[in-house]
Specification:
- It contains eight helices and five strands.
- Helix 1 runs parallel beside helix 6.
- The chain has a five-stranded mixed β-sheet with strand order 2-1-3-4-5.
- The model has no long low-confidence stretch (mean pLDDT 94).
- The chain is of the alpha+beta class.
């Protein structure tokens, strides 16, 4: 797998943002109040979270351009949760406006960067702006699926799925190795070298969805160990940091 360039990442962010804003524009008040694909969250909760993370990442970038760093959310993770609960019950029009404004802000921030700017340090995961862009890509793409409007993991692109293979390797339990074998594509091995090996076969998007804790939609997954069919192995929690909602 090859790393995505900042230029390509910016284009991916724009595409993912178009998907989310398009879905938000299609939801009326009743649809916003309906359950999402996430336990205990309505679509309004998901949209409020998308608004929050888009604004938070924009702020990370804006401060980085001044050589400064700031926490991801005002009030930390608890502040993030409070903001989601306060905004979850907003009307469809309010969510459309909030999501649109937040997405415009974050795309403008990332779009203003030069090559050096992508490597500026930020508070998020003690990383750099590029890491924040990858995180936003994950948030926008996965939460578009979580809204439960028919755009499932089967719509995820190959670059996005391959990025998840790399990022979510941290979910492989210690002492285990997963050999990911997407149909028609090269295999990818993640986990401990020399660990107990399990092969995960299936369509690329089904494997990525499983790793991300989402429901595979193409029904293609099969796990084997020592040539025998086995249950899909357990995964560790989402990598440390501010996670995508589980």
């Amino acid at each position: 797998m090859t790393s995505i360039t900042p230029e390509n990442l910016l284009e991916e962010l724009r595409r993912a943002a178009d998907v989310v804003t398009g879905i938000a524009a299609s939801l009326d008040d009743a649809a916003v109040a309906a359950p999402s694909e996430l336990p205990r969250w309505t679509r309004g909760h998901v949209l409020a979270h998308v608004t929050g993370i888009a604004n938070a990442m924009a702020r990370q970038v804006e401060y980085s351009t001044r050589g400064e760093r700031i926490e991801l959310y005002d009030g930390g993770f608890e502040g993030r949760n409070r903001a989601i609960e306060l905004a979850a019950g907003h009307s469809g029009e309010q969510h459309r406006t909030a999501v649109g404004d937040a997405v415009d802000r974050t795309l403008a921030a990332f779009g203003s960067l030069d090559e050096e700017g992508w490597q500026a340090p930020i508070t998020f995961r003690d990383g750099v702006v590029y890491d924040g862009g990858l995180a936003l890509w994950r948030e926008l793409t996965i939460h578009a699926t979580d809204l439960g409007t028919g755009r499932g993991p089967e719509t995820w692109s190959r670059p996005f799925c391959e990025h998840l293979f790399d990022f979510l390797a941290a979910r492989v339990p210690e002492g285990e190795r997963f050999v990911l074998q997407p149909l028609g594509l090269p295999s990818v091995t993640i986990g401990s070298a020399g660990g107990r090996s399990t092969a995960i076969n299936g369509m690329l998007t089904d494997i990525a969805a499983w790793l991300a804790g989402r429901t595979p939609t193409l029904g293609s997954l099969r796990a084997t160990a020592a040539a025998d069919g086995v249950e899909l192995p357990a995964l560790l929690p989402w990598p440390a940091g501010v996670p995508v909602a589980q």
